[in-house]
Hints:
The chain is of the alpha+beta class. It has one domain (21-97). It has 3 helices and 6 strands, in the order βββαβααββ. The chain has helices spanning 39-53, 61-68, 74-84, and strands at residues 20-22, 27-30, 36-38, 58-60, 85-87, 94-97. Strands 1-2-3 form a 3-stranded antiparallel sheet. Strand 5 and strand 6 form a beta hairpin. The longest helix is centred in the middle third of the chain and has 15 residues, at 39-53. The chain starts with 19 loop residues before the first strand and ends with a strand. The model has no long low-confidence stretch (mean pLDDT 86). This is TFIIB-type zinc ribbon-containing protein.
Amino acid sequence: MNMDGLKKGMKCADCHAFDMQMLSNRLFMCSSCGAVVGLENQIKEYFSLYSRIIPDEVYTRRDIKDHINTDLSEYTLQKIIKSNFRKLDNKERIYYFSP
């Protein structure tokens, strides 16, 4: 499967734009239509759909941040990783999606 056409990042459920901005450490807001959605739910939905396309994908912290494609604070990123991902190995920072 050719994955070059896929775009990473959070997409608005209302207008389908990739203009999601951090409103707070719990909310995203679409810059195009103004829709506000929960950060945690949006990220779970994104990685659930992505894991259907590429099952058993492993991620580094940088990969997770690249997929989200928004300026996250280190605290928020760590919280997302702890609640939605599991470490592949105790010594390495390689994770798999497991909400």
